[in-house]
Predict the structure.
Amino acid sequence: MYTEDELLPISALQHLAFCERQWALIHLEGAWAENQLTAEGRVMHDRAHEPGIESRGDVRISRGLRLRSLRLGLSGIADVVEFHRCGRRDDTSVTAEGALPGGVCLPGVPGFWSPFPVEYKRGRPKSGPYDEIQVCAQALCLEEMLGVLVPSAALFYGKPVRRFEVTLTTSLREETERLACRVHELMRLGVTPPPIYEKKCDSCSLISVCMPERLSEHRTVESYIASVLDERQG
């Protein structure tokens, strides 16, 4: 179990899953480079994080809900957590994760409600499971906080303007927990990994800070500086 002071942001898992060097540049070195995609995504999240609760029939929508897991050492703010009415909580069997199926009681609201996190993304679905890992971490936090099983979640993408349901499988949960352990390990080490250029680097907003093509050629700092000076001198 981690203490409150040791909690790391849930969003760090998405960065780590994409690239350990990207994670280190952002969370160790404080580097950030805004581009159109990140700016539009930030605006979308700012709107989604405005606190509030609304009801739509058998669904209650909570925005900007604070999350944490002392077991995984994570904290963050959910874009949206929907609570779906699910009747009575009469199943007392315990899952492998230690959570009960069914729903929770909400203050001042009759019935039982099942939590369903929804993460908003500005662009299109990614080729890797980076977004799925982030929303899975949110679900794991909810399970710990509320004591109920969260079997699925959703990702809303701004480009197709639709959302995709994510089944929180055992393998996805295990990968999310592995990354949670890894992010704390890297934070303790405090070392930025060297760059390795891959095709996905071209879509990274930090490519001009990371410089993977230049720095992944196993050159010394001295040789890199000399090459830059040679280029500038013609």
